[in-house]
Design brief:
The structure holds two protein chains of two kinds. Chain A is an alpha/beta fold. Chain A is built from 13 helices and twelve strands. Chain A is 42% helix and 12% strand. In chain A, the strands form three sheets. Chain A has a seven-stranded mixed sheet with strand order 2-8-7-6-5-3-4, sandwiched between helices. In chain A, strands 9-10-12 form a three-stranded antiparallel sheet. By secondary structure, chain B is of the alpha/beta class. In chain B, strand 5, helix 6 and strand 6 form a beta-alpha-beta unit. The longest helix of chain B is centred in the C-terminal third of the chain and has 39 residues. Chain B is globular and about 70 Å long. Classes of the chains: A alpha/beta, B alpha/beta. The interface between A and B is large, with 79 and 69 residues.
Chain lengths: 399, 380
């Protein structure tokens, strides 16, 4: 048996930091200073944060004042949806409905569910079609039933399991007719698609550093000035009073550097990764002919992310394949990392109309900035045997 | 030479902490929630960190939640305990809490909770009698800090928690400022929740910890993927957790010896300032105070001008909480202690850590005297 390098095909869960971001973080960690302090050390920290804010804003088509730094995508989503709900309902008690797509990440689904359970929100799922795209007709119908009662709409920019890009602009147009704020979780999209917050018409958008080459523990809610959600974290009044807490200067600086480096190279990286994905998909359907690639087959920023290939292996248990691949040094996922270990079929696949067996027999391969042809080839080399064993084992009988 | 005397705002990152974090920022980059080897390596890093912290605090690993910092911990504790507690809708916080606690309580107020801010004496201490007087049958939470960020006073938390316990009320203590200096022993304190921040202990900013007793009902603040057994959703920051565990271990190692050494330096500094600066008065408790904390008011002198003068001469400090810096409002802590507003606006706070030396502090005292002499025409 030869010693194999690990093949990491789980970049949608988290992707390694780009070296430039590590360098900036290291440099910043050597400094002391609370960005709220008035003395020189504090002012230097504040300057670093503000430069980072400008950098992040400029790459996302936002104004600096629209960037609210926080601890990551989950916190940003919680702030956006809970905060918008509280603020809108405070203005008008009739606004109790929260509309969200059926394929949202748990970081959005769970706060929405919490609002229903604890805050009396009426939460409504909008269905998606077979490729995982939100059904605008259904959303329109839901809104028009009673537009005055909608507190907020949220739809992710691109799905984390399938990679399907959502019609954000159309959702915004539909909502704007009734003055309803729209939030989008762009955590998966930010590294791989050009995002323009201003042009999108969105009221709020979530991004996180560790999906685009920055560190874990920092992200941002990009939010228009006129929109004032009720904060999730109260205290010293940092970040426009929307997010209290001492700002992690090193984290923020590394986040900004990752945004700068990753987005500056985005077109080039995307083309390279799209080619790798093609190699993966073509090879996969060759070595396992009955594998089915899910989601939108069309490439391009309006269709799907370039880096995700979501595949169903009929008759196989996804978890079994995951472990067999892991044993061969190939790392992937059955869906979102957050649901990993929880033996439940993906809510995304079920929403797309798959039955539970197909949903359980699926794997997500996600590429990233360190991925190579050799990685893809290694997967393709081990896949036939892995597939054969998983197929022989069959599927666990359902309860 | 620059002397940094604002450690209560933030302290330098400790080298050992960085070294412990380094592998998790570079090689071991996985998501602990992932079900493969790269994920498992990250998982074992955060599990070890949790075990280590649990050992240091004498609590169970499953009672610990890694957070993004002190503010998140305080928010999660105050809101989460109040929202989950079935006793009623009355919360008690001390009048000298950090804004993270005060503003969380005020938010609960907007949700329909009644908030009582229990007062302090002239040394900034909450007395058990004062607490006892405001507790009610429907009180659902008491939150009092372990030590003050502004005046350094150490609260008699064990006594206060005993009062709350007699009424059956859960008790949270914000131990952010105390963590570098005081033993963190929830059992000895008799509290049900305790929060700390990493960056006051020598980790990078962005890490913190909340401990909540497993028997105490508590509602999480951030919902999502269900990480940390649902207590705090969001991708786990393994490097931050490892850094925090390391910093807590380091702090525990030399806590007793350094507390004694630094407290002696502080006492000398306080005596020197009171001696050399006419009219200066110590704020906070003279003895029950953090070792690395000396705070004064300088009646007749603008605190802001004093700070600028000090910084020009290489002594970096602050008026009080960094969060309130730049505000014209006098400190809520000093006014709660009974100081007139104009006196409260003359505050200067010198805070230092384990690296403090007698020379630096002597230099600071002399510089402060010189600055004040220049700002204030000698009294007749």
């Amino acid at each position: 048996m030869t010693e194999q390098q690990t093949v990491y095909l789980d970049h949608a869960a988290t992707t390694p930091m780009v070296p430039e971001a590590i360098a900036v973080m290291t440099e910043q960690l050597a400094r002391t200073g609370n960005a709220s302090s008035l003395h020189a050390a504090g002012r230097a920290a504040r300057r670093t944060v503000e430069e980072a804010r400008e950098l992040v804003a400029s790459h996302l088509g936002a104004r600096p004042s629209e960037v609210v730094f926080c601890s990551g995508g989950t916190e940003a989503n919680n702030l956006a949806i809970k905060g918008l709900f509280w603020a809108r309902r405070a203005t008008d008690p009739a606004r109790t409905r929260v509309l969200f797509s059926a394929i949202e990440h748990h970081a959005l689904l769970d706060p929405v569910t919490w609002l229903a359970k604890h805050e009396g929100a009426a939460v409504e799922t909008t269905p998606v079609d077979k490729i995982g795209r939100i059904r605008l007709d259904a959303l329109r119908a839901a809104v028009e039933t009673d537009p005055g009662s909608v507190a907020a709409i949220t739809t992710m920019w691109a799905n984390n399991e399938m990679g399907t890009v959502q019609p954000v602009r159309e959702v915004v147009e539909l909502a704007a007719a009734h003055g309803i704020p729209v939030h989008s979780d762009a955590v998966q999209a930010a590294g791989y698609l050009p995002l323009d917050f201003g042009a999108s018409g969105l009221d709020a958008m979530t991004v996180t550093a560790h999906k685009l080459g920055g560190p874990v523990g920092v992200g941002a809610l990009v939010i228009r000035r006129e929109v004032e959600p009720v904060p999730l974290l109260h205290g010293g009044g940092q970040e426009r009073d929307l997010r209290s807490g001492t700002i992690g200067v090193a984290l923020i600086a590394a986040f900004a550097k990752a945004v700068e480096v990753t987005l500056a190279r985005q077109a080039e990286t995307t083309a390279r990764i799209e080619a790798l994905r093609t190699r993966l998909v073509e090879g996969l359907t060759r070595v396992v002919p009955d594998a089915i690639v899910n989601g939108d087959p069309e490439p391009g920023a309006g269709h799907r992310l370039p880096n995700i290939a979501h595949v169903t292996f009929p008759g196989c248990e996804g978890d079994a394949m995951l472990m067999l691949l892991d044993a061969q040094g190939v790392e992937c996922s059955t869906g979102s990392a957050c649901a990993a270990g929880v033996p439940q079929p993906s809510h995304v696949l079920l929403a797309m109309g798959y039955d539970e067996r197909a949903a359980r027999g699926s794997l997500r391969f996600s590429l990233g900035h360190t991925s190579t042809e050799a990685d893809v080839d290694r997967l393709l080399a081990v896949l036939p045997a892995v597939h054969e064993r998983a197929l022989a084992a069959g599927m666990v009988r359902q309860r | 030479m620059t002397v940094y005397l604002d450690e209560a705002a933030t302290s330098p990152v400790r080298r050992e902490v960085l070294e412990a974090m380094w592998p998790y920022l570079t090689g071991v980059f996985g998501n602990p929630a992932s079900h493969h080897e790269v994920g498992a390596a990250a998982r074992s890093g955060i599990d070890r960190a949790r075990q280590e912290v649990a050992g240091l605090l004498g609590v169970r690993p499953g009672e610990l939640t890694f957070t993004s910092g002190g503010t998140e911990g305080a928010n999660a504790a105050v809101k989460g305990l109040a929202l989950a507690a079935p006793r009623g809708r009355h919360v008690v916080v001390s009048a000298v809490e950090h804004p993270a606690v005060l503003e969380s309580a005020r938010w609960l107020g907007r949700l329909g909770f009644e908030v009582t801010e229990v007062g302090v004496d002239d040394r900034g201490t909450v007395t058990p009698e004062a607490l006892d007087a405001v507790l009610r049958d429907d009180t659902t939470l008491v939150s009092v800090q372990l030590a003050s960020n502004e005046v350094g006073t150490v609260q008699p938390v064990a006594g206060l928690a005993a009062v709350a316990a007699a009424h059956g009320v859960p008790f949270h203590t914000d131990a952010v400022q105390a963590a570098p200096w005081l033993p963190l022993d929830p059992a000895a304190l008799g509290v049900q929740a305790l929060s700390i921040s990493g960056h006051k202990l020598g980790t990078p900013k962005g890490s913190g910890l909340l401990w909540v007793d497993r028997r105490t009902p508590w509602e999480p603040l951030v919902h999502g993927g269900g990480q940390q057994d649902g207590r705090r959703s969001g991708t786990e920051d393994v490097a931050a957790a490892v850094g925090l565990a390391t910093a807590l271990r380091l702090a525990a190692t030399d806590r007793d010896a350094e507390s004694v050494r630094v407290a002696a330096l502080r006492d000398t500094l306080v005596a020197r300032v009171l001696d050399a600066v006419p009219g200066a008065a110590l704020t906070g408790h003279a003895t029950d105070r953090l070792p690395g904390h000396a705070s004064f008011v300088l009646p007749g002198v603008s605190g802001e001008a004093a700070l600028i003068g000090l910084e020009e001469r290489g002594v970096v400090c602050s008026s009080g909480s960094a969060c309130a810096a730049g505000s014209d409002e006098p400190s809520h802590v000093l006014t709660a202690m009974g100081l007139p507003r104009d006196v409260a606006q003359t505050a200067v706070r010198l805070t230092f850590g384990r690296g403090a030396t007698a020379d630096e502090l002597e230099h600071a005292a002399r510089t402060l005297a010189a600055v004040v002499a220049r700002l204030r025409p000698a009294a007749g």
